[in-house]
């Protein structure tokens, strides 16, 4: 019986799969020879022989409890700020309102830096530093940069970050306070990516850790899928909705659930995976509707749900495959709809979520109305971050009283 901390075996091209070469997982890698994301593969027989769900249940409540299924080889390489094992909250009042009484929310607003990006950063930075990387470089819509800057500081390595000027303002401050080298770009995330890609080669020991251009961010985000299964008693929900930008989270959750099935820890079908976007930037939804395997960047991408403003995702084909192979769907909602859903959820359940999460609740309502969801199904919404990152999503229009004034009588 092997007691390795990780049972990572090799990397595989996400396009070529087992037909393509095996890539060495113990050197710094970018994309595959055909330019596609690389996926980490594990010796799952060894995992099954060395650990059980019952043993995992005794471990600390963070994402490292799944370390056999993560790429970090040496426990001493783990860079952590306490990420993972976020609540899976029942939402009875809001579920009743939407006609989906078995509605649950996986709330990623509670991780360090306030968005689920901390998961990808914790695992990605840990593994990069373990392999000798001296600095990480990436474009971001804000939240990923804040997370990677924070974990890079924790690891004692550098961070070079570029983000659109329109990205949430607080995420700039998070990068600056953690000592990152930060640039604002008058453009979208793709423009920031071109600038970073051109600069990274000039910095000794830096790695381009753009979305899906290194293999381990997916592995960190995979833990959302592992946790959901564990929190449900090692089973899957019927449906899972995910606010989709670069698509890493939905790809990663599908990967997690397939690994759990292969391990024999969970049986039954994967949940129907729903990719949710905003109508102002919905390339995955457009491709899904058109029956295509890849997306085309829309002109003038714009939505208040900034984390999902990704006009062209490197892993678009993987998102579309995750959706189609699970019998899921792709749906876009307007900014007005996602903000209304965000506000209604806060009134119903007392939780201020990010606008990206709001998009998923708006989508639940629409899918229930169309009959795609039936009222008996167990539905999990992934809320990817806290509303605190987006203070401008709530207008405050209340009276200011003079100090010798009086509060008016009860409102009618
Ligand atoms: C990055 C981000 C997303 C999109 O995540 P992907 O996994 O890249 O699709 C959604 N919501 C928030 C808050 C984000 O920061």
TrEMBL record:
GO BP of this protein: isoleucine biosynthetic process; L-serine catabolic process; L-threonine catabolic process
Region (Disordered): 1-22
Keywords, in A-Z order: Lyase, Pyridoxal phosphate
Residue stretches in coiled coil: none
Compositional bias of kind Basic and acidic residues: 9-22
Domain Tryptophan synthase beta chain-like PALP positions: 79-385
PROSITE patterns: DEHYDRATASE_SER_THR (PS00165)
Record-linked InterPro entries: Ser/Thr_Dehydratase (IPR050147), Ser/Thr_deHydtase_PyrdxlP-BS (IPR000634), TrpB-like_PALP (IPR001926), TrpB-like_PALP_sf (IPR036052)
UniProt-recorded name of the protein: Threonine synthase
Gene: thrC
């Amino acid at each position: 019986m092997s007691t390795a901390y990780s049972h990572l075996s090799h990397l595989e091209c996400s396009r070529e799969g087992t037909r393509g070469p095996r890539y060495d997982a113990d050197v710094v890698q970018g994309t595959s020879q055909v330019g596609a994301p690389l996926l980490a593969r594990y010796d799952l027989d060894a995992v099954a022989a060395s650990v059980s769900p019952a043993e995992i249940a005794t471990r600390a409540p963070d994402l490292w409890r799944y370390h056999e299924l993560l790429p970090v080889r040496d426990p001493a390489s783990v860079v952590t700020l306490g990420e993972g094992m976020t609540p899976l909250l029942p939402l009875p009042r809001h579920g009743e309102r939407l006609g989906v009484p078995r509605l649950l929310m996986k709330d990623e607003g509670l991780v360090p830096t306030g968005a689920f990006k901390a998961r990808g950063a914790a695992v990605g930075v840990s593994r990069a530093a373990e392999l000798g990387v001296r600095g990480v470089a990436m474009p971001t819509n804000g939240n990923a940069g804040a997370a990677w800057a924070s974990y890079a500081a924790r690891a004692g390595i550098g961070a070079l970050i570029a983000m659109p000027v329109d990205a949430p303002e607080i995420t700039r401050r998070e990068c600056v306070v953690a000592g990152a080298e930060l640039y604002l770009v008058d453009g979208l995330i793709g423009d920031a990516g071109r600038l970073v890609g051109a600069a990274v080669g000039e910095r000794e020991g830096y790695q381009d850790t753009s979305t899906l251009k290194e293999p381990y961010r997916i592995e960190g985000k995979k833990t959302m899928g592992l946790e959901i299964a564990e929190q449900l008693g090692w089973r899957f929900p019927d449906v899972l909705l995910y606010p989709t930008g670069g698509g890493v989270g939905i790809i990663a959750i599908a990967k997690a659930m397939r690994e759990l099935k292969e391990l024999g820890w969970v049986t039954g079908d994967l949940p129907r995976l729903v990719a949710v976007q905003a109508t102002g930037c919905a390339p995955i939804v457009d491709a899904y509707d058109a029956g295509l395997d890849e997306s085309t960047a829309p002109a003038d991408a714009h939505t208040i749900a900034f984390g999902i403003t990704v006009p062209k995702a490197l892993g678009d084909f993987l998102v579309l495959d995750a959706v189609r192979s699970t019998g899921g769907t792709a749906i876009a909602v307007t900014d007005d709809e996602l903000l209304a859903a965000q506000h209604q959820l806060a009134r119903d359940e007392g939780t201020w979520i990010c606008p990206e999460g709001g998009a998923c609740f708006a989508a639940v309502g629409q899918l229930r109305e169309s009959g795609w969801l039936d009222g008996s199904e167990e539905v999990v919404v992934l809320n990817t971050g806290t509303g605190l990152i987006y203070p401008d999503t709530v207008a405050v229009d209340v009276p200011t009283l003079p100090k010798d004034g009086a509060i008016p009588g009860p409102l009618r």
